[in-house]
Prior knowledge:
Blueprint: E1 4-8, H1 12-24, E2 28-32, H2 35-44, E3 49-53, H3 61-71, E4 76-81, H4 85-93, E5 98-102, H5 106-123, E6 129-132, E7 135-138, E8 143-146, E9 149-151, H6 155-166, E10 172-173, H7 174-182, H8 192-208, E11 213-216, E12 220-223
Parallel strand pairs: 1-2, 1-3, 3-4, 4-5
Antiparallel strand pairs: 6-7, 7-8, 8-9, 10-12, 11-12
The chain binds calcium ion.
Calcium ion binds next to loops.
Amino acid sequence: MANRILIIEDEVKIARFIELELVHEGNTVDKAHDGREGLDKALSEDFDLILLDVMLPKLNGLEVLRRIRMEKETPVIMLTARDAVMDKVSGLDAGADDYITKPFAIEELLARIRVALKKRGNAVSTTHTMEIKGVVLDEDRHEVTVNGEIVELTNREFELLHMLMRNKNIVLDREKLMNEVCGYDYIGETNIIDVYVRYLRTKIDDKYGIKLITTVRGVGYVIKDN
Ligand code: CA
C-alpha cells in the first residue's frame, strides 16, 4: 500500500494493533488519542486516509469528521461500536467513505482501506466515467452506454443511476434518492423513486439481461459491483 495513514482512536491498544498491521503493510502511520488532537493533525498535515473512531474524548468522531470535511476530502473510515446504526448513518451522511464495526478482523479493515483509497483515486481521475457490470456512465457527456450502445434516459433517470453508481455497494434509502433526484424542495411521495427504478430496469436490466439495481426490502436500493 505505502500510504500515509492517521489513526484517531483513544483505545491505545487498538490503535497500536492497527498501527503495527499498517506499518507491516508498508504504510506510514501517525496516531492521535483524542478528537481534538486528531482534528489538528488531520487539518495541519496531509494524509492519504484517516481511520476515525466515533467515541472519542474531547471531540467526538462525527464532529471531527464534519470539521475535516469543511476543509478536506481525505478518505475517512469510521470505526463504530457494534449495532450503532445511527453512528453509521450519520457518519456516511457527514462524508465518511466507509465504516467498520468493532471488533473487526484486521483483514477486513485492510480490504476496506484498499477500497477507500482506490475509490478516491478514481474520483480524481480525469475521465469522469464509471462502469459497473458493463454499464458505463459518462459524467461529462451526461450519457449512459451498454456495449457501446447509448441508453436514452430522462434527466431524473440519469441522476438516479448516477447517484447509485457513485455510491456503489452502499444502500441508499428512498428519501435520500428523492432529495438527490427531485431536489430538496420536491413535495411528493418517495415511491416516485420506485417508478424511476422501474423505468431504469426496463431500459437497462431487462433489455441487456443485467441485474444492476438491487432492491433492499424496507430500505431502498443499491448497485453492487459484483
Ligand atoms: Ca473510543
